[in-house]
Amino acid sequence: MDVSLVVAGIAVAAFAAAQVGNEFQRRTVGLDYLAVPTRVPALVAKLASYAVIAAMLGFLAVLVAQAVVTPLAIGRASPPAA
User: Fold this and answer.
1) CA-CA distance, 45 to 42, in Å (whole number)?
2) What is the full DSSP assignment across 20-76?
3) How confident is the model over 26-80, as pLDDT tens digits?
4) What is d(CA 40, CA 32) in angstroms, rounded to the nearest whole number?
5) DSSP 79
6) Which residues neighbour 42 within 8 Å (Cβ) at sequence distance 6 or greater?
């Protein structure tokens, strides 16, 4: 379990680094903050879009996990009652 949390943390850090690098590469990093006088609306919009994508991916992960675990759980015999 600890290893999976570390892998998930590394994946999130890599995604964040890729997003920042992408904005610098496309030279849009300054335009977001020049077009909007304050940074809060731009950051809220990014946070909302990432939250929606994360929720959809999380739901997909739950569906896949349920599809894998249910047949395994049905196939196992329950332990005898003591």
Assistant:
1) 5
2) HHHHHHTT-HHHHHHHSSSHHHHHHHHHHHHHHHHHHHHHHHHHHHHHHHHHHHHHS
3) 777 776 666 667 777 877 888 898 889 889 988 888 888 888 888 877 876 556 6
4) 11
5) P
6) 32, 33, 36
